[in-house]
Amino acid sequence: MRPCLIAFVLGLCAAAQALGEVYQAPEAFVTEVFGTLPAPRVLWLSREMQAQASAILNHPPAVLRQRYWSDGAKSVWILEEIGKEELITAGFVVSQGHIDHVRVLAYRESRGQEVRDPSFLKQFSGAGLDQSDHLDRGIDGISGATLSVHAMERMARLALYFDRRSRD
Amino acid sequence: MPFRLRLIRTLRRWHARIGFAALIFFMLIAVTGVALNHGAVVGLDSRQGHSKWLARWYGLRHEEPRQAYRTASHLLVAANGRWLLDGSAVGEKMPRPLGLVEIGDLIVVGGESSLHVYRADGALIDRLESYALPRVPLKAIGAGEGELVVQTAARSFSSADVLNWRLGAPKVVAWSTPTPLAESDREAYAQRLAPGISFQRLLLDLHSGRFLGSLGPLFFDLVAIFLTILALSGAWMFLAPRLRR
Is ipTM over 0.90? Predict the structure, then answer.
């Protein structure tokens, strides 16, 4: 009995490691925001947008066609960025050029999960972009999760930038 | 000769010997330490080193590429979680491909629970994970009447833009199936598709001695003791004459 239990627990640990920590499926997040799952829209990144996205991320954007969901007033952006070694998946809800709320949907790093805390994420609520496409407010860091915090900031800036360009 | 003078001469001799013997390891620890501290800035944490001997050293299972997916003008070979699309590496930690399809200007590589959409030059246009697909797992992908078709366990779905899906498939679908790689090509692809080790991990293992196996950390502990002896003997040689004065 005991070996079976140990094998089961080890199996669960291995599965969790393989999947990372997925807290909410992206489609569930989108559905939660709109009440239903609308058809996705796409924002094609022109060369100029790729350059600006590169400046925000400090590396080229992962894709040239960014999917998003919008009902006209609000838009939802599911973005991914590497914290230290693994991807962080986060959902950003943008309304009238400002972040409405943010949620970490999947966190795969071994440390730094504190960026999931609502007390950290609520700092993004109401944030917009200044003229140089930086957040118009400071985000307090988290000791031991500096790279994840920076990744969240970069994604927030990118979501706001994409939202602005999607309305051009 | 006074005892104190003999002691200082002996210390100086051993200080020099230990310093010289451990020079390479001190340099290694210093260089890898600096690289680890600043690796993220130059992107070392996201880069991988690929080599068959490195994979063997780390005991990574090495999968030989045996088949390829082809369209009229594109070729995909995959192994060890890596893809070569038209000869260019297009990513790490990639899923096992199910097929390769060309629709207009788009090249689509299907996995069990994802689709990767590329431009003809290999630039990634979009990556559709399971939530953006009509159903998963995918069983096969193909093309028909200008549409991408994905086959799931029970149904087929089609899409012209690899974004919006409709239930059903065109009457004629060309399903993507693998073809064997020529024996002569396998070795060349195996070299290029060798499993990767992240530079971050390589640096960490070099820094800690784990690169040398289970005895490596013990050896580096010894190097650390040497460094301590050097520091203490150096301090003694520096301070002793001054204190005597």
Answer: no
